[in-house]
Amino acid sequence: MKYEIGISGAVIVSAHNRYRPFIGSVGVSGDRIAAVMEGKLKKEDCEVWLDADGKILMPGLVNGHCHGDMTLARGLGDDLTLLEQNHKFADTGWFYTLIDDEDRFYSRQLTYCEALLSGTTFIMENMYWGLGEDSVRAMKEVGIRGALAEDVRVDFQRPDAFISEQFLTEFIRVCRENGLVPVLGGISEEDYDTERLKRIQAIAERHKILLTCHLAENTWRQDIVKKKYHVPAIAYLHQNRLLNPGVIGSHVVYASEDEVQQLAQTDTKVVNTPLCEMKIQDGIAPIPEMVKQGVTVCLGTDGAMWNNSNDIFREMKGMSLLHTIHKGIRSLKKTDILDMATINGAKCFGLENDYGTIEAGKKADFILIETRAPHMQPMLLGEMETVTSALIYNATGRDVTDVFVDGRQVVADRVLQTIDVKDVMEKVQKVSEKIGRALSS
């Protein structure tokens, strides 16, 4: 069989064999992986042949929670909690008045460029503002795969003013026609109301789309729910039958043992952003307990204002070290961490049959990582393998050399092949300077 693309002699790491690395090759035909084999591929068996000696081949990473609009504000939220940021920046109104849809478009594109170049092939964009078809175009032009979460509210000031059925139907159509996952963005705890939440769930179920919401992220939002309903957020949602397999809870920092069981029993998905939770002092989520109970947990970065980075490799290391010091050195296994970055991300969006592992028949979304660098060496295979350790503790997104999405090489030798990154950076820089001047005046 002749493959359109052959990746030869890589160290392959994937959940399908529980991350036991082996030297092998991948053959791609169209947008699918046609074959995965041990050993090397012959050049004559491939239309395009890439020598991957010295590189790791693994599934593209999944970023399950991101706000691309906030890349404009990278670094502006340092040394402030989320509540303090809300108080400090609310009076300036910069987020509403200083930036327009074009600014947001390029902010998102810069986010997706950063993500692809650091090995993320699927990203969930939690949109503060829907940009119509430009929301799709921002992803498609960069070449990343993803999900778009359209906020159910017309604006943040009116929690009961929902987008129209016609608008939502068109949003879903455009997403699906372009290979993106449409998601309905729910509300945070300060706007919780039982009937309002049931209306939102009914909309998601009627349109057969996933529902995402910020959930149990911090103490002040938890206190709002406790004061109003006398139970914390997760317990409140469970009491009202608002947890289910189609719900993706973001952050989920504060969950009791009973609430973790409720998440597991209802197959509610969780996206945790460990570096963000640390940076803005949200807290430490009970991730080891969730994993033990069988909750599907994946990783996200949140927005660059609250994290500064959209690199999932950093999140893997952060997740591991945070819970090592908090719950013990064996509280999470390396396989748990790699699951969160790959197959669990696919499961969160109902895509595990097509993505998340390196197997024949799945979509050809994978990345190559350079290992011939001092910080990645030495590296062992076999019984005492250190490849998985290197991926979690040594590697960063800067070690990614090549990225494939749908069988298309969108990053080649660390260079994005789709759009001019320099041009996007220059546009975002000008907007960020405008924001900085406004905040300092």
UniProtKB/TrEMBL annotation:
Entry keyword annotation includes Endoplasmic reticulum: no
| GO terms for MF | hydrolase activity, acting on carbon-nitrogen (but not peptide) bonds
Keywords from the UniProt entry: Hydrolase
Start and end of every Amidohydrolase-related domain? Answer: 56-410
Give one Pfam hit by family name. Answer: Amidohydro_1
InterPro entries (UniProt xref): Amidohydro-rel (IPR006680), Metal-dep_hydrolase_composite (IPR011059), Metal_Hydrolase (IPR032466), MTA/SAH_deaminase (IPR050287)
Q: What name does the UniProt record give this protein?
A: S-adenosylhomocysteine deaminase
